[in-house]
Structure formats: structure tokens, C-alpha cells
Write the C-alpha cells for this entry.
Amino acid sequence: MRAPRTLVSYILREVLLYTILGLASITVVLVTRNLVRALDELAAAGFVLEDLVTVLRLLFTMLVIYALPVAFLFGILLAIGRMTADVEIKAMRACGIGLRTIMLPIVLVGLMLSGLTLYLSLDVEPGARRGMRAAVKQMLARGAAIEPGKFRRVGDRLLYVEARGRDQQLHGIVISDRSDPKRPFIVFAKTGSLRLDEKRGQLLLGLESGDIHVESPIDDDERHQRIAFSHFEYAIDVEPLLGRDKGLKAKDMSLAELGETVRRVARGDVEGLREQPIAYALQWHRRFVTPLAPTAFALVAVPLAMRRTRGARALGMLWCALIAFGYYALESLAEYLCIGGWLAAWATPWLPNLTFATIGALLLLRMRRAGE
């Protein structure tokens, strides 16, 4: 039993090494891509280096659930492919190490990764999504969008603050508002304070001692109006930045919220839903079934990687891209069929997993019959 145990440890070490390398690479690509997409919202809310670190941490938590299965697939294809190309697998088979001995520990690791992915899927990843909204909200609440000495554009508004006191009081405030092209105006105020009205989704500026200069339409006799004020509360709509202008998306809900929404939909109560009613039941089933992807990938990847071919590493990366694309394309197709009413919500996430598990079983059966 000593030799099989040593060989199994060697195989797992190789697979896990390539998996870690793949996870690092894939996660960097996904995080960078999504960070670039989120930069507009972050710039609108205003952020500093500490905020960027928080956002990167939350993005990693959100995206690792997608990177982990593909990284495991990458690890199997490259590790087993290299060992096959170097005739190591053939030597093991010649020493009496059967396909089951090679396959079983990898599938067990796939099951463990499926358990980890399930844990991430149920509440960790949705929690990270909610944390992202909370981070944006925190930036808005402390007025990070307003940086003293710099002009800051928020939608059709241009803001300038000369200085910010230790008590967070703003000094020398200028606001150019062109949200209504027919009636643009400029506000000047000596001082002001900032607060976030989360209920109404507005950033409120309490302005003191200033003037409002209104540009009248060109055909008016009076081209300019000046209105002095001692106190003026100016509101900026930041509902889109808070991410709850139409309620929560299904993927952003906690498991408890999602379950309650599914029960509401079953009772016929669909008021206030941001997505189609079927999307919530679909998301509920996806959270429990989609984590099976690492196990399904293991069943397909091992027999493919054990085929004796040249250029194992290059071919392994190509197979990884094709399998991952095929899996997620089939998942998208199943979701489309579900939304269209052609597939039940409970069956939708099973389609890609069962398809790839079946392909893996057929490849293993063919390998056994061919005596490879």
C-alpha cells in the first residue's frame, strides 16, 4: 500500500500546484476586468486607497466562486497531461496502478471543492455583493465624492469645494447644475454640510449663506436671475450608486431573502420585484447545484488529459478554455430556456452538470474498453 499512497500524493500535489497557479491567474484576470467596469461607480462615489483595497477584497470574494472550478479543471488537464506526455501515467499503469486509483483521489478533491463552492455560493458570495453596495454607500456618506480643491462631476452636476474642516464642514462651495438643459443654474455658498439620506437615495448638501444664479431662456427679456439664501438644501440623486433603485437582484439576496421571495412568488405576490419572477426560483436552485461543477470537470478532464498527445501543456490550456466555455455556454442556454418557460427552474442548473458528467462517464468507459 506504500507505493499507491506515495503515487496518489504525488498526483494530488501536481494537480493542486497547477490548480493554485490557475486560480491566481484566473482570479487576477476576473478581478481586474470587473474592477475596470466598476471604476465609473467608484469614481462617482469617490474613493481612496483604503476603499480600493476593500473593493478588491470584495471582488475576490465574489469571483473566486467562478474561478475555483475553472482553476481545478486547469490543474487536472495540465498536471495529468504533463504526466501522460512524460510517460509517468503509463509507468504507473505498468506497475499495476489502475485507472480507479488515479481517478478516485482527484474526484474526491473535486467533491471537496464542490463543498467549498457550495459554502461560498449559499451566502458568502451574495454577502460580498451586498458588501460592495455598503462600501459605495459608506464612501457617499462621508462625502468622498467631494475632494477639496478639485472639480468633481456627478452626472450632469459639477461640484467644487475649496476646503473641508476638521468637523467635515465644507467651505467655498460651487455647484454647476445642468440636469435641466432648459434651466441650468450655478450655486455659490460660503459653508455647507453633507449627509446621505439612504431612505430617499439622495446625497444632501446643507448650504449656508449663498446665491443661486439661474440662466433664463434666451427669448426671455431677463437673461439672468440671482436668488440669495441663508440656508438651502441641495439634493443629488445617488440611487443608482446605492444599487437598490428597483429592489435587490436575485443574485444579491441572502439565502433567507431569496427563499422568502420564492415563497412570495409562489403565492402570486410579484410586486416590487426587480427581475422576472422565475429568476428567483432559478437562483435558489443554482446556489445548490452549480457548485457541482468541480466534480463534473474532474470526470471529464482526467480521461481527456490521459490521452497520449504531444504539446500536453498547450493542449491542456486549449481543452480548459473549450470545456469551461462549453459548460458556461450550456448554463446560459439552460437559463434562457428557463426564462422562456421551456425548462423548469429546478432542472436548469442540472443540465450542464449532468451533461458533462455523462460525457466524462462515456470517456472513462471508452478508456477502459480500449485498455488505455
